[in-house]
């Protein structure tokens, strides 16, 4: 399995990469961003995605766009996909030893997810998509980030979206992989060989009040994810990489599974790309210019 970050000395650096972080249905704004840039003749030559960002990023890498892409997205991301219960899981919780509780435990069955993703991407492979793609996941046993750059698109997407406890992990090359958000919610490091990176990430909202356990857990996990995402962005910029952060200007809250908001989010992505268009063009022009040689004096 091809994992971790790409070589620090790539033979042919990518000119422009698009990194889509985890963000639920909001990640579909990436389709609007790609569409707006394509209008200017700007196309990505590498796509990197994590969790829902990987799902919608795969549509971009496959060359899907417009209304057909939006229609397909409604089948790939919908609340019904999370409602396929594994009744055996309740028995595993009550009598774990007898029912065989283990690392592969999940509350939900992912067969419907597999069916939908397979219908969309079939036998596609990451390295053979019209635009090469890398997918961020997490090795369950160690917690280390894993970047999939070769192999089945379906398996990679399943792994990147496999939220622990909720969905089962996916075994790829002998290792159990789960949701990429646990180790790298905005995997800019997976595009370290790109001259310019356009990133679409989402900071989670903190609970307004902590009056129950679930909200305390949400506060803790959101803090960890937000800080990890910020650290990844700052590390890339500190290393000299040109990172153009695209932020959505939303005038209302959008639910995690609110598929009816997809056209609204697509348009928000279009507007967000337009707002950063000059910065993206300038970054690309700067990346093409000869880099000055610096002399260091001891």
TrEMBL record:
Residues 18-192 form the PNPLA domain. It comes from the Bacteria. A motif (GXSXG) lies at residues 49-53. SUPFAM superfamilies: FabD/lysophospholipase-like. It holds the Pfam family Patatin. The keyword Cell division does not apply. The active site is at 51 (nucleophile), 179 (proton acceptor). Signal peptide: none annotated. InterPro entries: Acyl_Trfase/lysoPLipase, NTE, PNPLA_dom. This is NTE family protein.
């Amino acid at each position: 399995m091809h994992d971790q970050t790409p070589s620090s000395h790539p033979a042919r650096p990518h000119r422009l990469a698009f990194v889509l972080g985890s963000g639920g249905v909001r990640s579909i704004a990436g389709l609007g961003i790609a569409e707006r840039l394509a209008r200017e003749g700007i196309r990505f030559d590498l796509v990197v995605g994590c969790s829902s960002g990987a799902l919608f990023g795969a549509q971009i890498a496959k060359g899907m766009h417009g209304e057909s892409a939006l229609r397909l997205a409604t089948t790939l991301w919908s609340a019904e996909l999370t409602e396929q219960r594994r009744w055996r899981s309740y028995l595993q919780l009550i009598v774990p030893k007898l029912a065989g509780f283990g690392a592969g435990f999940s509350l939900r069955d992912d067969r419907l997810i597999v069916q939908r993703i397979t219908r969309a991407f079939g036998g596609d492979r990451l390295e053979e998509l019209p635009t090469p793609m890398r997918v961020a996941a997490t090795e369950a046993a160690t917690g280390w980030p894993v970047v999939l750059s070769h192999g089945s698109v379906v398996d990679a997407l399943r792994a990147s979206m496999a939220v622990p406890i909720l969905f089962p992990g996916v075994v790829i090359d002998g290792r159990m992989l789960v949701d990429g958000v646990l180790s790298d919610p905005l995997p800019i490091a997976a595009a370290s060989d790109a001259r310019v990176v356009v990133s679409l990430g989402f900071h989670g909202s903190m609970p307004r009040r902590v009056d129950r356990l679930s909200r305390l857990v949400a506060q803790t996990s959101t803090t960890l994810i937000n800080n990890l995402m910020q650290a990844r962005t700052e590390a890339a910029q500190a290393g000299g990489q040109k990172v153009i952060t695209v932020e959505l200007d939303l005038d209302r809250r959008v639910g995690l599974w609110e598929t009816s908001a997809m056209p609204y989010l697509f348009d928000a992505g279009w507007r967000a790309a337009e707002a950063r268009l000059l910065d993206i063009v300038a970054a690309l022009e700067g990346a093409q210019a000869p880099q000055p040689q610096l002399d260091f004096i001891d």
